[in-house]
Specification:
The complex is a heterodimer of chains A (about 200) and B (about 400). Chain A is an alpha+beta fold and about 200 residues long. In chain A, about 35% of the residues lie in helices and about 25% in strands. The two termini of chain A are about 30 Å apart. In chain B, helix 4 runs parallel beside helix 5. Classes of the chains: A alpha+beta (about 200), B alpha+beta (about 400).
Chain lengths: ~200, ~400
């Protein structure tokens, strides 16, 4: 699989098999949004862990508070927004892994390592990963993430990565898979499909 | 928690009472110092020689009690600040190394642009990095390397600035303090390196200054005592100085908001033996950073002769430092940010050390914390897992 462009999101701070947290310096427009597909390199050469961003958190900062209410120069306001290392943490739910050859929709055998880079998946990688929908179960069962919102957001992103004429088919196939998985919970299925349709 | 706070309550209370008593005594001393400052204000020129002999502030020709109001600064002015931090080598660690991290900020007043930030870490791990003159590079030796890295970075950034008024700010004194234990030739070499960077900043067209927050120097009070004994250096050395423990800043707390004191010359021997021949004689003044209606905040500003002796450059430094301090209230914004960019926090350090261990493992090197470090990491809440 070719990796295409390597948009770095940040470095891994805390990690476990199910999820991991990365740190970013600043909130850039290019930072992947909620539901984006990302990947981190694993310990074994060529291995990759795939994940979905489920939370972006800007931590409290006493220095910024110092300027609230003050007559703050434009230079300082721009620095706080654009360049200052305010701690931004991005939480990622692990949804798959690869040994460099085969993508599997399961939890990785080993989590990413502290300070490894996290990259945004290219459209090509998203298409390869979403060729099957086995990862739905991992998302639907996640307790740490808003599962239904996350799955709907990730499906919209995955649909956008498909060729234009195949997007609707992709979403219909995804909806069928959801109907199969949530057959025993029609209320939840209805809510999820509604999220997919209305946004 | 192992610190038994209940056993400290009595001592803390006694400390408070002691400090209150000292404050009352302090007020009397400040009164005496200010009377002397006014009384001997015109005697500066006659005190120079003796002042140098007893390491008192050396007057520069203006009245000792002169003060200069806050000057206007150009609408556009760049302030460049650099600061550094380091990880000391730890012989109990998994591997012997040191790390110097330099942070810098370029703040362009009046531009409306976000300041430029840089953070430059340098890892020392080779034999040449780790040892100098047979000694492990730690403590003062590493401090000196950090100071040199700071001033070199400041010179680099100053040189890259477009033409226009530029102030280069150092956090602390401009006088490089190198321990005597180092062989004279090596001390001389470090000093020459530092002075060369001051030359580069000068050639870049910037004005450099060292900013010292809450200074504890007692050089002006020593000068006042000297004046009170008719400028006799012998008497000043032998007779008790009632102002001995009074810091200079207390004398200048009556400076108007934004105003600076008279200029003085730093009396340290290094200044005369090293800085002066290179054209960088270090001057200083005290400055009240506070806005009107606020308690005074006195800082000491050091600057080389090629800034201090030119009124326009001196005014530029004076005005720019106050402008920077007014952004936050009472401390230069650029220095706060440079410190933040340089600072290596506990979690960062821990993550960096994990990265080193991972790298060693990948390279096939088996390393270990010493037993002492390992057990400390357990009892002090560390979360290291590696012990091989």
């Amino acid at each position: 699989m070719t990796l295409g462009q390597n948009l770095q999101v940040g470095r891994v701070l805390r990690t476990s098999t199910r999820s991991f947290v990365i740190g970013c310096e600043v909130m850039r427009p290019a930072i992947p949004t909620f539901g984006s597909f990302v990947r981190a390199e694993g310990l074994a050469p060529g291995s990759v862990t795939y994940g979905l961003i489920y939370d972006v958190c800007v931590e409290d900062d006493r220095f910024v508070r110092h300027f609230i209410g003050a007559d703050t120069p434009e230079e300082v306001i721009r620095e706080m927004r654009e360049t200052r290392q305010v701690p931004i943490e991005v939480s990622v739910l692990a949804v798959g892994c690869s040994d460099g050859e085969t993508i599997r929709h399961c939890l990785p055998a080993q989590p990413p390592v502290t300070l490894d880079w996290l990259y945004q998946c290219t459209d090509e990688e998203v298409r390869a990963f979403t060729a099957r929908f086995d990862y739905f179960r991992l998302v639907l069962e996640a307790r740490e993430a808003p599962a239904d919102e996350l799955l709907a957001a990730s499906l919209r992103i995955a649909a956008a990565a498909q060729p234009e004429g195949e997007r609707e088919t992709f979403l219909i196939d995804a909806g069928r898979e959801l109907a199969r998985l949530l057959a025993g919970d029609p209320m939840r299925l209805e809510g999820l499909l509604h999220r997919l349709q209305t946004r | 928690m192992t610190l038994e706070l209940s056993r400290l309550t009595g001592q803390v209370q006694a400390m408070g009472e002691e400090l209150a008593a000292r404050e009352r005594q302090y007020a009397d001393l400040v009164g005496l110092a200010r009377r002397w400052l006014a009384q001997y204000a015109a005697r500066g020129e006659s005190l120079g020689h003796a002042a140098r002999a007893i390491r008192a502030a050396i007057p520069t020709g203006e009245p000792l009690d002169a003060h200069h109001a806050l000057p206007a600064i150009p609408d556009r002015i760049a302030v460049v600040a650099a600061d550094g931090s380091q990880i000391q080598p730890d012989r109990h660690g998994a591997v012997l190394y040191h790390l110097i991290n330099i942070g810098s900020l370029v703040y362009r007043h009046g531009s409306g642009e976000a300041p430029e930030t840089r953070s430059v870490p340098t890892l020392g791990y080779t034999e040449e990095d780790l040892y100098e003159g047979g000694m492990l590079v730690a403590g003062n030796l590493l401090d000196v390397r950090r100071d040199l890295a700071e001033i070199t970075h400041l010179a680099d950034v100053s040189a890259a600035e477009p033409p226009g008024p530029t102030i280069a700010l150092v956090d602390g004194s401009l006088i490089l303090w190198v321990l005597d234990e180092l062989p004279p030739q090596e001390r001389q070499g470090k000093m020459a390196d530092y002075l060369e960077q001051l030359d580069r900043i000068r050639q870049a067209g910037a004005a450099v200054a060292g900013f010292i927050s809450r200074p504890r120097h007692g050089e002006v009070t020593r000068l006042l005592h000297l004046a009170s004994v008719d400028g006799d250096a012998n008497r000043a050395s032998q007779e008790p100085n009632p102002l001995e423990r009074l810091p200079d800043r207390a004398v200048f707390e009556n400076l108007p908001p934004g105003a600076r004191s008279a200029l003085f010359i730093n009396p340290s021997s290094i200044n005369y033996e090293q800085y002066r021949p290179a054209g960088h004689t270090v001057y200083f003044f005290y400055l009240n950073l506070a806005e009107a209606g606020r308690d005074p905040v006195i800082a000491r500003v050091e600057l080389p002769a090629w800034v201090a002796e030119y009124p326009d450059r001196l005014a530029l430094v004076h005005g720019a430092i106050v402008a920077q301090a007014r952004i936050t209230g009472d401390y230069p914004y650029a220095l706060i940010r440079a410190d933040e960019l340089a600072f290596i926090g506990g979690p960062e350090r821990e993550a960096f050390e994990d990265m080193i261990i991972k790298s060693l493992l990948r390279a096939g090197v088996r390393s270990a914390l010493s037993p002492k470090a390992y057990y400390k990491s357990l009892t002090r809440g560390g979360r290291r897992k590696y012990r091989r």
